[in-house]
Amino acid sequence: MTNRMDQLLAIMERLRAPDGCAWDRQQTFASIAPYTIEEAYEVAAAVEQGDMQHLKDELGDLLFQVVFHSQMASEAGQFDFEAVAGSICEKLLRRHPHVFGDRGQLSVAEQTRAWEDIKAKERAAADSSAMQDVPAALPALMRAYKLSKRAARVGFDFEHAGQSADKVAEELAEVRDAAGENSSVPDGRAATAVFEEVGDLLFAAANLARKLGVDAEAALRAANAKFERRFRRMEHLATEQGEVFAELNLAAQENLWLSVKRGE
Question: How many independent structural domains does the chain possess?
């Protein structure tokens, strides 16, 4: 493994050399960051598909992104891959005192609480806000989940999931009210009030998911996949019936939708 890692680091250094790859040489942290995010999603997709060969390949692509950032940082005299590896090693040792220290074994629930407590202490050392260090670049739904979780750790939370559900209903009513008051916005553009109320509704939904122990981001990905699967099946059924789906009226399309649901 060491030989392969050394080979990867050498390849990256060569690509960034003066006589290396022109594309790789012109990249910056900012230009590479979107690719890093994309590769992380590719890893998640491979996991969801249960495709181990694909997962191996995508993990390699993600590792290359880490090496790429590390090489650019090394060139700037900031840090190198060795420092990156050292940073995560130190963090893992620090956050697992029950494994590498003298605290004894913990259950999964106890370890989760201990991990969060250690992270909270680390954040407090740098910033007194419970909101500190929630990455702004996270997908909005995932970030909403994490922000509400941080707030809950310091007591700002509904006691029961039912109260969170009531909040979702309240925000939905406010969306309806705002949309009704702004139904004649020129060019169909949503008014600022509607925009804000929809955002509040989505945040409340993410918070409800957290209270129910559901990963909001994963749940929405699953819902997206289900919608796409059902929609493609509707189109297929329409074709089987000699129809063009886009030319059907809404009632006929809804009948196809119900047919697909019943068939699952």
Answer: 3
